[in-house]
Amino acid sequence: MAKSITIVGLGPGMTKFWTLAAYQHLTEATTVYVQTKYHPSVTDIPGQVNSFQGWYETTAKLEAIHDRLAVEIVRLGQQEEGVTYAVPGHPNFDETVPRIYTLAKQQQIPVTIIAGLSFIEPAITALQPINVDDLQLLRAEQIPSQYYSPPINPDKPALIGPMYDAETIRLWQPVLLNLYQPDYRVTLVQAAGQTDERVWSCRLVELAELLAWDNKTGIMLYLPADEQNCSFITFQQTMAQLLSPDGCPWDRKQTHQSLRPYLLEECYEVLETLDHDDLPALVEELGDLLLQIALHTQIATRDGNFQWGDVLGHINRKMIRRHPHVFANVVVDGAGEILVNWEAIKKSEKAEKGQSLVESTSALDGILEGLPALAQALAISKKAVRAGFEWDDIDGVLEKVIEEAGEIAHATDAANLEAEIGDLLFSVVNLARWHNIDAESALRTMNARFTRRFKRMEQLAVAQDQRLADMPLSDMEALWQKAKRQLAESG
Questions:
Q1: DSSP bridge pairs for 137
Q2: CA pair distance 229, 178, nearest whole angstrom
Q3: Which of 127, 330, 360, 367 meets the CB 3.0–4.6 Å disulfide criterion with 324?
Q4: In this structure, are 10 and 79 located in the same domain?
Q5: Of the candidates 300, 189, 196, 190, which has an alpha carbon nearest to the alpha carbon of residue 240?
């Protein structure tokens, strides 16, 4: 025999699950290397069996074991007789196999896969009846690379596994809680298709605490479709239907231009929920804002201009490109250096797009004219600072605020007064920036605070059978102070 690697799937358990091809190869092989000696059918292999079980018991990280195992199998495959390597389930669901393929290709060693029944079929049988039309399949090993949530559409059923230790479940649980409610019920299948098969359910929040098993039998985790949840794909389908020929007449006639006022309105409604720290309302308003983005994107898709993939791909690539300290090997010293790098990367992007850096030399280029005045002032100030135009310390900023306030008193006409008030406001924005305070948000918060106090003043006046308009300023001041105290006491 020439050097070769044959990877055989042992199926989910007992020998009865072997395929005929697997049976013929395993019974004819003189030596078989198995990933784990605990697989129920290993004892039925007639030839010499060498197990890598000890590697799993002495090395903590699975990634390291899989890498080491792949190297060893490829080394064994270089022998004249080649190597037979047997893994649980179907080989293509095993983490070591892709690594073996890569290394074997580099060494020009042919790899043959002999299929085995996967863990999916007996698990589905144990879970009957379930709808397999939309069933999502995930390997247990996918979780370490997911920082927010796994690639699961929660409104469709999903099957995860096999898992051989409680630690894997403990890694999955917090990530799944980013998609499902704590009381969401999941089902587990242990030793599917075996004589000791076990099926049970629990709440997601209880998952890690209820598990205790050894690594001899795998567990499959089943997540039924969550009808109270929604995936992004489902939302895309809803929007596509609304703009389809059989969709909503109002939605179908909208254009990018006709939707402009709604986009602006939804942005301000999101800001209002943030001003009131109203998280339940924020959920709704963010959804309304997303609706506007979806409408614009679906209109463009319908008209053949661009698609969701273009929108998401653009911003995803931009975030990766502009965060080399996270996604590459760039080392930064604090947030200030991150901002410097950010601006440098932006300039590089413009150059790549063919935008002349000579034609756009101002540090203040790129500031939106449509920003609210305070927000625009902050953007201008920040860009000027990045160009080195900054006070040495906060004392200089305070002196500038006092200076501008004094100049208002000496304004000689309306135009001069307007200019001096503008100078003062711009200086106050800089003062807020030095204290890491967003002036726009600070003023919006003050507007809301003033509104609450004034309305309480009106209520207090009515309780005294009076109107604010008929009261002297001293009485209104007393009511103002009383309103402040009451609101402070009520939180």
A1: 159
A2: 12
A3: 330
A4: yes
A5: 300
Domain total in the chain: 5
Residue 210's CATH number: 3.30.950.10
Q: Which structural domain range is residue 270 located in?
A: 232-321
| CATH code for position 44 | 3.40.1010.10
Within a domain: 346? no
Here the contacts of 389-394 (C-beta below 8 Å, separation 24 or greater) are 391/430, 391/434, 394/431, 394/434, 394/435
Q: Is 267 a residue whose pLDDT tops 70?
A: yes
DSSP line for 150-190: -S--TTS-EEEEEE-SHHHHHHHHHHHTTTS-TT-EEEEEE
Verify that 126 and 219 share a domain, yes or no.
yes
Domain boundary (223, 246, 280) is at 223
Check pLDDT > 60 for residue 358: no
> Which tokens sit at 109?
């060693």
Q: 401 CB contacts (<8 Å, ≥6 apart)?
A: 424, 427, 428, 431
**Is 365 part of a structural domain of the chain?**
no
Give the whole-number percent of the chain exceeding pLDDT 90.
56
Partners of 114 in beta bridges: 8
What integer pLDDT is reported at residue 150 of this predicted model?
Answer: 67
Confidence check: pLDDT of 440 > 90 = no
Within-domain flag for 238: yes
CA distance 172 to 167: 9
In terms of domains, do 250 and 303 share one? yes
Both tokens assigned to 104: 């074997």
Beta carbons within 8 Å of 150's beta carbon, 6+ residues apart: 138, 142, 143, 172, 175, 176, 179
Q: How confident is the model over 281-302, as pLDDT tens digits?
A: 999 999 999 999 999 999 999 9
Q: Which of 116, 92, 93 is nearest to 25 (CA)?
A: 116
Same domain, 312 and 408: no
Higher pLDDT, 385 or 187: 187
End position of a domain, from candidates 321, 344, 363: 321
Q: How far is CA 360 from CA 61, 347, 365, in A?
A: 51, 10, 7
